Amino acid sequence: MEIHGILKTPVEIRSAILRQLPRVEDIFSAIQSNRSLYEALGEDKTTVSHVLHKQIDAKLLPYAAAFLELDKTLRITRHHKDVILESYFSLTSSQASEKLGQISLREARHVMDLHKTVQRLATKYSAQALALIQNEKLFKTSMLSFTPSEIYRTERSFYTLELYCSLFGQSRSRLSRDDQIDLFFKRFAPWENEQLACVHDFLLDELKPAFNEVAAHDIRFGELSIPWVKYESSWIQGYLSLGVKYLEKVIIASTYEERHRLLDEKLLLADNTPVLAECLIDSNDLYFGGETDELDDHAMRQLRQLPSPYTACDPDTGPAEIWFQAHEGDDRTQYVSAEPHRASRKIGYVMMDLSRKQDIASFDGPQKSIEWDNYDDENYHKEYARQLRSFEIRSEIYLRGGRGWWSEGDTTRIQWHDPSGL
Fold first, then answer.
1. DSSP 294
2. Segments making up each domain of the chain, as ranges
3. Which of 31, 98, 180, 222 sits between 20 and 30 A of 322, alpha carbons compared?
């Protein structure tokens, strides 16, 4: 039923009603149910931005501005990427707010779709990290939750990964690893690139169950010799470059059929190119190749002088100081995405506030008490031989026209087709 009172009210009051709504989604519902509110939205171009600010931390608004800019550009050259990154990293929260001042409802819903994905993934990462910290008693005192600034850093890291995927992923013009490092990773201190490595490792671990199930059983994947993952795989790295919204869909898919559909439809995009993982490791070469490679006092002084794009909005030096504490004595090959620090990345050590530094019992703790896949030469070769045998069997089935699900000893679910028609 149309509310005649609202129809008769001035447009300023109707706009004020919309501005009181808590979520962008509520604006969409309101204007669908009432034409006079729809007309008010058209009169006040700042209403959507006002409500959007209630849902997104002001410090994350530059990301929203960057992604809207990317959406408007079909083909992005190296110069375009440099301009977008320069613009993003020089953009203050207030400038981003002004830039988004007349954002449309369609654009805002798109921004919120990504933001909610980031929030869900960051919440899951933080919950896993907190559980490890508590279960293994890695802090001297009990840690009950992460602080708002630690949550912000975690969300920012997922946004940074998404920005990388949007600029350098499979759907954009490809650049060499050296160009990517020069344009992107060079802007960050090692502890900031290590923040990116934290969420990279998390997404890799979350993606493994779905990827492994399909890689172990799909006949086409076997024909292409795509290995399931225990230690590492460049194929799964290719999928990581497709962005967090796609990855979340795969991660939460609960059936084999849904997992297969999602992975198979992106198979050609997720080619055998582990660029992100390689760039993270190669970024270690950015950090002083001068007098010493060891993280000693001289090296720490040099690193503390590095400019950070986050200083203005995140002055807490916790990530840097805790990184120094964890890496003391390391050579520079261990600065970012190093295997010995994988367990520390699981607990988000470079996301933490400075106030946590004295509370960390020891950085030996995570490495010794949190289990993760160590390389085992004997088991690796057994697993590798089993995979090769599976590839051979599935390749033969594929050439005979077989498609679908296969398992050793179970061929009942294979779908047979005339190979001449495929």
1. B
2. 4-54, 281-369, 377-421
3. 180
